[in-house]
Structure formats: structure tokens, C-alpha cells
Specification:
The structure is a single chain. This protein is of the alpha/beta class and about 325 residues long. It has three domains: about 120 residues, Periplasmic binding protein-like II (D-Maltodextrin-Binding Protein, domain 2), CATH 3.40.190; about 80 residues, Periplasmic binding protein-like II (D-Maltodextrin-Binding Protein, domain 2), CATH 3.40.190.10; about 100 residues, Double Stranded RNA Binding Domain (2-Layer Sandwich). The protein is built from ten helices and 13 strands. The strands form three sheets. It has a five-stranded mixed β-sheet with strand order 2-1-3-10-4, with helices on both faces. It has a five-stranded mixed β-sheet with strand order 7-6-8-5-9, with helices on both faces. The protein is globular and about 60 Å long.
């Protein structure tokens, strides 16, 4: 915390990022004796590279790096992220202090006609900025014309409405949080269209040694979100994936069991590999489960498939 007793929260300035930061701020403020909270807007490389497909850009942490470095530098005390944007290995000196309750993890299709994915006309123009979504769309609708889609969530919806696309695919959680769920034509089944790792989870980071700030954040941590995210992120870490790999995964908790399913798909949709396993829903078992499912995928050829996809998309560094 700052010397003035203010808890400074670092966030991107997009509508969704601000919604998430305000949600964290309200949960902190609800605690007895909570400090005053202040939002600090930080521009990230992902915001600045708005015209370049992120899958054509080397590196990762496009939407989190600058915020986390501001946190390490003492400019802010808390960093709020969409957990799916956060690398599985945090920068030294940072801790993932809280995971909020998970919102709907599914992807959602929005179409101008209101039709679902299967009912879209032949050659439908579908917008997405995600390699994972491109791969699974190609798997289900090989006739679709896949177009790049960048910009914040409201901008993407506006571009659909003015006719730039016949349909677009976005995270259900972001649409719900921004009051845009009425535009959804179809929620895509996680079985056939698995979401991004940690999709729907808000992650809150603090400096590892800042015990005072971490005390305010620890009350926000939701056990089921932590279990699911731990398994999914362990899977991703073991596969050495990232936002540039067509991987979908979802962990769920039910009846004291933690189940993790995952799928890697070729970008053209012609080949995919799946794995599923379960364990006791305990923190010590979550990462073990993630590694086990990753090993199943690797044993079935996921490593070669991902390497082929990376090689096919290789670009010269800027």
C-alpha cells in the first residue's frame, strides 16, 4: 500500500478491464476497515498493437506485462487481469493473491441473423483474434471464412452489427459483465469448443512480500476457481503453450472431484487430440492433474502437432 494508506489498483482502461478492476475494488471495500482504493490506468503492448494479429507477434503477456512491471516497481499495489491473459510463470516477486469466482467459461457466437454456428450460411465470414477459436471453428465449419477481429468487446459487437462480419466469437463472461449478453446467438459447448485456459476467471496479483495488501486480497480468493485454474494452468505450463497455441481446456468441480478435459487442434481444423482425467478436488492434486492430462496429450502427439503449427506461423521478429 502507498504511504497515504491508499490501495492502488493497476488496470487496463478498456471497458471490460475497468469492470473487473471495479469488481475487485468493491470486494475489497466491503471488508471492515478496508483502505481507500484508487484505480490506475496503464496502457499495455496489446492495447498499442491493435492492428496486428497477436498470433503473428512474438512473445506473450501482451495485456499484462506493463501492469505487472508497474506493480513490481511500486507504482501500484494490486494488478487485476483476465487470468487467461496472464502467463503461467509469474515474474519473480509477484504472487497470484486471489482468484474471483469464475463466470461462465464458455465462448459465445454472435451472428447478425441470430443463427448458431451450424446454421450459418456457407462461406460465412466469422471474426476472431484467437488461434484457438480459429482452429475449432475450422474443425466445425471448414467452409467458413475466418477474419481477424481486434478491439475491445463493445467495438467488436459494433463491427458485427454494421456488417463487417456475419458472426463473431467472444468470451461469454465478458459479454455478461458488460451487459451485452442479449447479443448472443449461441453458447458454444465446451466439449466441442473448449474455452481458453482460465477463461472467465479474474486474477489479482500483488507483490510477494506485501503482506498488508495480500491480507486484503486473501479474503477474495474463491477455492473452486483456484482449483480449476491451478489444474488448467499446470496443463498449459507443461505443454509450454500460450495464447499462440490452439489449445482449449476446462476444469470443473463436482461432488468432491476435479475433472479436467483438454483439446489441441490443428489450425486448419483437420486434426485434434483430446484428453480427460479427474482427481480428488484438493489443492495438492490440482497441479498433478494438469500435468497428467498434459502428458496424455503429449503421448498422443500433441507436441508434434503444436510444433507444426508454430513452424507454419513463424514470422520474422520486428
Amino acid at each position: 500500500m502507498s504511504g497515504a494508506g491508499v490501495l492502488r489498483i493497476g488496470t487496463r482502461a478498456s471497458a471490460l478491464a475497468l469492470w473487473q478492476a471495479r469488481e475487485v475494488a468493491s470486494r475489497i471495500a466491503a471488508q471492515p476497515g478496508a483502505p481507500r482504493v484508487e484505480l490506475v490506468h496503464i496502457h499495455t503492448s496489446g492495447d498499442l498493437q491493435s492492428e496486428v494479429p497477436l498470433w503473428q507477434t512474438r512473445g506473450r503477456a501482451f495485456f499484462t506485462r506493463e501492469i505487472d512491471r508497474a506493480l513490481l516497481g511500486g507504482e501500484v499495489d494490486v494488478a487485476v487481469h483476465s487470468l487467461k491473459d496472464l502467463p503461467t510463470e509469474l515474474e519473480a516477486g509477484l504472487a497470484l493473491a486471489a482468484l474471483l469466482p469464475r463466470a461462465d467459461p464458455r465462448d459465445a457466437l454472435l451472428s447478425r441473423s441470430g443463427a448458431g454456428l451450424a446454421a450459418l450460411p456457407a462461406g460465412a465470414r466469422i471474426g476472431t483474434s484467437s488461434l484457438r477459436r480459429r482452429a475449432f471453428i475450422a474443425s466445425m465449419r471448414p467452409d467458413a471464412v475466418l477474419l481477424e477481429l481486434r478491439g475491445n468487446v463493445p467495438t467488436r459487437v459494433e463491427r458485427l452489427q454494421r456488417g463487417d462480419y456475419d458472426a463473431i466469437v467472444l468470451a461469454a463472461a465478458g459479454l455478461t459483465r458488460l451487459g451485452l449478453a442479449q447479443h448472443v446467438s449461441e453458447y458454444l459447448s465446451p466439449e466441442s469448443f473448449p474455452p481458453a485456459v482460465s477463461q472467465g476467471v479474474i486474477g489479482v496479483c500483488a507483490r510477494s512480500g506485501d503482506e498488508l495488501t495480500r491480507r486484503w486480497l486473501s479474503a477474495l480468493d474463491e477455492p473452486e476457481s483456484r482449483l480449476a485454474a491451478s489444474a488448467e494452468r499446470a496443463l498449459l505450463r507443461h505443454l509450454e503453450g500460450g495464447c499462440q497455441v490452439p489449445l482449449g481446456a476446462l476444469a470443473t468441480v463436482q461432488g468432491g472431484r476435479l475433472t479436467l478435459m483438454a483439446r489441441v487442434c490443428a489450425l486448419d481444423g483437420t486434426r485434434h487430440l483430446s484428453a480427460r482425467s479427474e482427481a480428488v478436488a484438493e489443492p495438492a492434486e490440482a497441479e498433478v492433474l494438469g500435468v497428467r492430462v498434459a502428458e496424455e496429450l503429449l503421448a498422443s502427439g500433441a507436441g508434434e502437432l503444436m510444433q507444426q503449427e508454430r513452424a507454419a506461423r513463424a514470422v520474422e521478429p520486428p
